[in-house]
Amino acid sequence: MAHVVMFTFPAQGNASPILNLAELLALAGLHVTFINTENFHCRLLRHSPEHFARLSTLPRLRFRTVPDGLPKDHPRPILEFLNLERSLRTSSRDAYREILLNKDGNGWPPVTCVIADANLRLAYEFPEEMGFPVFFFRTTSAASFWAYHCIPDLLKAGEIPLSVDSDMDEMVENVRGMEKILRRRDLPSFCQRARTADDPFLLFAVGTADDTRSRAVLFNTFECLEAAALSLIRSVHQTTYAVGPLHSLLQGIGGTAGDTLSGLWEQDRSSVAWLDEQPHRSVVYVSFGSVAVVSEEQLAEFRVGLVDSGYRVLWVLRSDLMGSEKQGAPVWAGELEATGKMKVVGWAPQREVLGHPAVGCFLTHSGWNSTLESFAAGVPMVCWPFFADQQINSRFVEEVWGSGVDMKDVCSSEAVTRMMRAAMEGERAERMRLAAERLAEEARRSVGEGGSSRMEFLRLVEDIKGMTAKFSDDGRRCERDIKQL
């Protein structure tokens, strides 16, 4: 029997799609061990108890944790992910080895392969050393990954690092296949902020884009959405699976509600009750995801711009949206709610919100999970990217997919109002709405019976089942050799 170990980077945006895939594989008959850090898993359990209670009923899915090496009271800010990643590489190694050797097997079969979050080096480097086949899971869009893959070409051509006075609207020439799409301002944030070729964030991006050692690469996307980028990726990595949107695929195959992982914040369901009272397509939904940080000045511009637009607003204001040192909602949040045209919550059940008929557009940070969820719901977007791959996602939403507008590098109340109106009313809004509805239909087809993503998922399952576990009872390396790794 096949046994897959899956290891996620401890961040909500990474864990959510990988956990969806873990559930799908378990429902397909594979044994799945899902690894998370002790700290992050406890936080997920605290805020998503019903989600994990349901998962605990699956006999072929189990959870294991490893230490991250940081003090218990450490805040673990995700923007300092390089420190967390380095700590994991040293502190989690022994615990990870025990899981791979299946020493607490309790009747479970030996490990067949590892599906590793490609942002976590330990997740794939260590099993590779031990001889396990490794599949990389990419939590970004295929287009964003391809841009990461081309960073060495950008460096060689001298297109990066950028200087402080670079023309950010100049087109980028050395991301093959995207020469007429990407401007300098659309490059991943690591490329834009690096001033030297040895910038640690830039080197991290280059390192994690190296798929040469993986058996295959998995993307949470669908074929007709990113056919061009997937074709480019397959030119360098033939075995590439496009199995998304995973939350929609799970809903179809598993018969579950495809519920949202609450993650690090408790969902406020009063947001849905408030939407029930609003007219059709009258609400702007605003959420900058689980990582983005905005300044007090930027938040003030958004507040004025949203109020001046005249639309009803459902606004997710995380307690740490302005940074860990400024916890809690701004004092003006209650004043805006008193008008009856705005609802402010700390966290919302996003998929349910996006699927609500009262929602007319989504002001988003353009994280890939949020972008896919907006596609699946058929909701136009106003994109204000924060970092990493989000710059490319927002560009593609406007320039390639036509289902939204890109507001990157702009944060004035006038621009916010203008973008809201562009997405909510008039001919341009109608074009975006039609494009969003078309993408929603294509996403539904991809995960439906005979759809590309469903067929790719079934191919993945069969490929894993056909693999032979590296460590059988009569072929395992001796313990002495393993301890030397």
TrEMBL record:
This is Glycosyltransferase. Belongs to the UDP-glycosyltransferase family. It holds the Pfam family UDPGT. GO terms for molecular function: quercetin 3-O-glucosyltransferase activity; quercetin 7-O-glucosyltransferase activity. Gene3D superfamilies: Glycogen Phosphorylase B. InterPro entries: UDP_glucos_trans, UDP_glycos_trans_CS. SUPFAM superfamilies: UDP-Glycosyltransferase/glycogen phosphorylase. Keywords: Glycosyltransferase, Transferase. It comes from Vanilla planifolia (Vanilla). The lineage of its organism: Eukaryota, Viridiplantae, Streptophyta, Embryophyta, Tracheophyta. It is an enzyme of class 2 (transferase). Its EC number is 2.4.1.-. It comes from the Eukaryota. CDD domains: GT1_Gtf-like.
